[in-house]
Design brief:
Helices cover 76% and strands 0% of the residues.
């Protein structure tokens, strides 16, 4: 276990060094982030000016996106391109025989990217939005604690779904569309582009039967008090249920992927 932790820290440090090498990407990312913040504010301000807010407020909606961006930076991962690239180049064979498990190699690189993105992108935007817009605090200390817990569980759900989708690269010759497919699922059913409280009742009900809601929408719903205190326990149980189901599915698909592996390059 100690050896794994050391290797995990080394991979994260190496990724941080690589990301800091390209300063132009860092600066352009921050500038584009501020631009998107201004665009998002203008669009939602125009929508709320029409009076069709469905009981929500502009501050609540902006808090949903800005605070959510910080939380989701530790959730959102991109395994599909990494796995597909390793398969196509033939590097998958070397990575699988390394003493550090392949899954942990992917997770450590993703965590490095998430930490780097939070410090250099989400945090500056959060500070700017807090001063210029005025974000809502959590409704209570208990809600904030449950928000942190649901965010961790949401991260596990997101990672498992991402792995399941990414494993299809073992059967497909073209894997570049995987990120689009995953993004579409989380955007539509998870509330990635629009809070679920704006959804029609029938679509909101469908989202409740799928895991995507519990990976994206649920933490911010708890933070903002959209989930009543007496329903938080049920919400946590639903997240644990989906983790169990998705973990079993991930193990099954990974076993099949290893038996079907066909390296296309190298």
């Amino acid at each position: 276990m100690t050896a794994y932790i050391k290797l995990y820290c080394k991979i994260i440090a190496k990724e941080f060094h690589r990301l800091l090498t390209y300063r132009s990407n860092l600066y352009s990312g921050i500038l584009s982030g501020f631009f998107m913040l201004a665009v998002r504010w203008a669009l939602w301000a125009a929508l709320f000016a029409t009076g069709n807010a469905d009981g929500s407020s502009l501050r609540e909606t902006m808090t949903y996106f800005i605070v959510g961006d910080i939380a989701y930076n530790f959730i959102v991962v991109r395994y599909g391109n990494s796995i597909g690239s390793d398969i196509q180049s033939g590097d998958i064979a070397t990575r699988l025989i390394k003493p550090f498990p392949y899954h942990l190699q992917l997770v450590s690189m993703a965590n490095a990217m998430a930490s780097f993105s939070t410090l250099t992108y989400s945090l500056p935007l959060f500070i700017a939005a807090a001063f210029l817009i005025g974000l809502l605090p959590p409704i209570s200390a208990a809600a904030f604690g449950f928000f942190l817990l649901t965010t961790v569980l949401a991260g596990v759900i997101y990672n498992l779904i991402e792995l399941l989708i990414s494993y299809s690269a073992f059967w497909l010759t073209d894997y570049w569309h995987l990120s689009w497919f995953r993004g579409a699922l989380f955007t539509l059913f998870g509330g990635g582009a629009l809070p679920l409280w704006f959804y029609p009742e029938w679509l909101h009900t469908i989202c409740g039967y799928l895991p995507f809601k519990y990976a994206v929408y649920q933490p911010m719903a708890v933070y903002l008090g959209r989930v009543p205190v007496d329903e938080i326990g049920t919400s946590l149980l639903m997240q644990l249920f989906w983790i169990a189901v998705l973990f079993a599915a991930e193990r099954f698909v990974w076993h099949r992927a290893q038996s079907k592996m066909a390296v296309q390059g190298g």
